[in-house]
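Predict the assembly for these three chains.
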Amino acid sequence: MVLDRIKFFGQRNKQLLGMLGAIAVMLLVLSISVENFMTWTNITNLLAQVAPIAFMATGITFVLITKGMDISGPAVMAASSVIAVAFITSFKVITAVHLISGCMILLLAGGFFGFINGLAIAKLKMVPLVVTLSMMTVATGLATVLGGARGLPTIPSAYANFFNKYTVIVMVILISSALDFLLTGTSFGRKVYYIGNKEETARISGINTDNVILIVYIICGICAALAGIVNVAIISTARASMGPQSQILDVVSAAVIGGVSVQGGKGRVRDACLGAFLIVGVNNVMNLIGVSDYFTTLIKGSIIIFAMGISSFRQFYFSRIRA
Amino acid sequence: MKTNKFKLDNIFQYSTYIVLALIFIVFTIGSDKFLTHKNVYTTMFNGGPLILITCAVTFSLLVGVIDLSVGAMGYASGCLAGILIKNYDAPIVLAFLAGIALATFIGWINSVFIVKLKMNAMLVSMGMMLIIRAIAKIITHDKTISLFSLSFLRQAKIKALGGFPILLLVVFFIVLVCNIVLKQTPFGRKLLAVGSNETVAKNVGINTDRIKSAALIICGAICGIAGCFWVITLGSVVVTGLVSYEFLAIAAAVLGGTSLLGGRGSFYPGSFIGALILLFIASGMAIMGISPYAIPFVRGVIIFIAMYVDSLRHKAMMLA
Amino acid sequence: MEKKSPLQLKNISMTFPGVKALNNVSFTAHQGEVLGLVGVNGAGKSTMMNILGGLLQPDKGSEIIINGESVKIKNPRVAEDLGIAFIQQEVAAFETMNVYENVLASDFDKWRKNRSPFLNKKAMKEEVRKHLATLDCYIDVDTPTHSLTVGEKQMVQIARALSQGGQILLFDEPTASLSDHETQKLFEIINNLRTQGYIIFYISHYLDEIFEMCDRVVALRDGQKTGEAPISEINKEKLVDMMIGHFVETTERKNSRDKDDIILRAENITGVKFPRNISFDLHKGEILGVWGLLGSGRSELFNTLLGFDKMVEGTISFNQNGELCEINHKDLYQHVGYLTEGRHHNGVFLDMTIAENITSSDLDRFASKGIGILNNRKEKEESRKYMKQVNVKAVDENMIVSKLSGGNQQKVIISKWMLKDPDILFMDEPTKGVDVGAKAEIQNLIFDRSEKGVSFVVVSSELEEIMNLCDRIIVIAEGKLVGEVNRDDFSKEALMAGIVKQEEKVENEQVQVG
């Protein structure tokens, strides 16, 4: 009985087990190759580093499940951060109230960018890739203009002290579990899967698909903003370059490695976050072993292609079985 | 009913010309430096790589594949040519051929992943873009390679036409060839057929995999030419060369009426005019002294509008 | 032409993982005959056609002999070289391309201008005009295909088959999407081709068509050949017997309801193209049929009424608490279910479980208030209940829907709407592509529910079915309401009368304009 349960769980969570296995291997490599790796500080540092990518991967998981695409994540993250920091630093004396309202503005801005994306995609029926592509250019442009030539001043260290690595880790765990539950345990989440599986059928079933898609893109924008909150804490200010356009690759590949299908209808936030852990972990392995940044990019590129290969093979295999 | 729709189609067909004309009118009124031989020629000459890459990406879009590695392939080609000329004193022609060969080869690798192994095109080409950029950075040690020996190519001009750069003829020639291939040859029809409906194409006996692979390889080759052109126009190989050209090129192709879903599009007027629209907007704004930061803004908005028009066109087609 | 070129199929088997789709099927086709291939869904007809068309590879030991030579049809190209042309079930066209490009799509290379790499467009168009002329179809060859009607696209497809110069033509359900008029035209063409000596395979669900068109039939059941006979030697009962082994009786509707409360009143419903100005009333517990030829605007009527297509004009009133008051699409949809025509297109979530499919029509019932936490246990219990009611044959409610047969998928969709328990259920071709057994079950279910006060609006292409099922039938043609027939007056003639009148009128108009 118990054995059956375990077996059933294993069947339903192949992706999770695979991810955990890969992460275990990665940690093993790290602890062998780097002396004193398995210290509390190192582990918590690593977890905190994962946060921005994990947040954005969470957001894009929603989008990918609806068969959508959002490549504006990092740009939106930078733009909302710049807006918020510009707001905060516009006051002479900065108090906690300003910082808190700054955070609010950051989240609102992210949600607003997502709202625009969602509006164009859900209501105007435009192609997600191109919509978010133009959003990416617009947001980067906005961040550059607002950031000014000399850059924004830094914000008080109270902010960074509050969003220290422990807060960030707790945030990631809490928010991503909440969103994972939203996706798998609620009617809204189920509707997201319905849409990814077949939007037309979902509409016929009486689901307001446009609204669900709109909300999904708003969630994605807010997730990018959450990543912004963490990143602002790290550099104490905000600038356009904090969200390089290529970072979206890390985000998408985190989700894809976590088993989220680009074809829509499949995936979980939990696994995408583990994917983010893996991607950032690989970065760290490279860094610690002393591989140059460029090689790291190279290896990451290969990982994406490899992960894609696995998922397309799996699809091919299942389609053979089904035919 | 039918006549009405044809009219609608016609308006869409000429819309690119209309937009380009509007841009010219607005900027000519805005600045007397805009409509000069010099500005028009320089803009087109410096925009040569964009025009070519747009043509390249159009090939992949026609068969319904979004190739995001086009900018990187061009960069790889230009980079290799530059290194060969600078470090190994290779003859210029040979160096360029090597560059084009390299880009073609990368196009082939893309086709293996995307067509043979059926992987998601966008992610594969994105990964490919990363890999190419990374390798190039490792090889060039992140340094600019200056190539003075190419300046004669850049300066070759036809006096009679008010200083028309000779190399621009190459761009026109390639656009022309692409157009003929698409409109006059069996291969062109097959491209359209595969993009229009792959299953049907397969069922009527078209070797869809081969056609798609060919489109991606040709896409690589044209990117290679674009890369060489880029090296000539700039006179050096910089690390950030052709960055984000993939997005610009796709935007230009879409502006020109190429469908992202495959099966519809053209090189002339399509891609060519689409690219010119983006180029002259940037040039016009620069001449009128508008902040360079604003250019991505305007571009983003224009792409957005173009896409909206495209979706309207799609709807009109489906309703008919 | 003099030489006979029979096609022999020997011991054809085809194994999909877990299923034997064809098991040692052998038969011969002769020149100048139309060979009907019949069987219920999943009997293996389409698999056989796909093997001949080169889309599937049969198991080892299978042998196909053409003109006395054993051949292997590795892909569609080889099939074409062997003179086999395949006209598929779904009209398959390159929507973004022109008519002539569509017709000649299978071999563009042939059309080069004397060995130059360029196409000879003039010759191409000439050739296409020639083929279209033999089909008695005069479409402008430069027309973009997306603007053609379904029937015209079918013609384009047949022209494509002819242009391939094949001697063996495979028609897989060619009339599925044609109007009666177009069907007649197609039959003429097939008759024509028969006299020219083509070998023609003809697959159809409609037994009438088989009797009208075919010289001989081969019946398949569960991948095995269950009979082969010249059409003149058998009758309908015999044929059905070969197909399903036993003759299934469908129950007659016993007591058709009296007209009591009106539950829905539609007035002047007008869409962008179709429908035009349609009004009707629907009574509680009534089964209302909507009859019309394909392309007459039946599905469009549903889509416009329910708000999926734009409604240009019209008012909808719905009976709420005994009063008929105007209602918008969104509120109306709370009270209705809609079973669409295209099962795979928009009926099911193929990659999701049966339970998830069934509860999709009324998900909020299983969700808590506020953030909407789903109660999975309740969801599964309810799904099981409805699966049992509708008799869905599956292991359990966790099975993925794509693994079910077509009929069972249809039953899942019906369970889904039963769960919502709507006041009105709109059904567009509820038994299309469903085998005879499941068909009867679905009909009985409709009867049963209507007894309990659910109203139905049903579209069906099968006259017999709609006449058996409905209390009242409204007839539409060209998007307009052209007649209404009560159950007592049901007859084929009565239903066709309105349509014929309408078609004549349209043709007269066209003559006047022309």
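The two ends of chain B are 8 Å apart (CA to CA). Chain B is about 75% helix and 0% strand.
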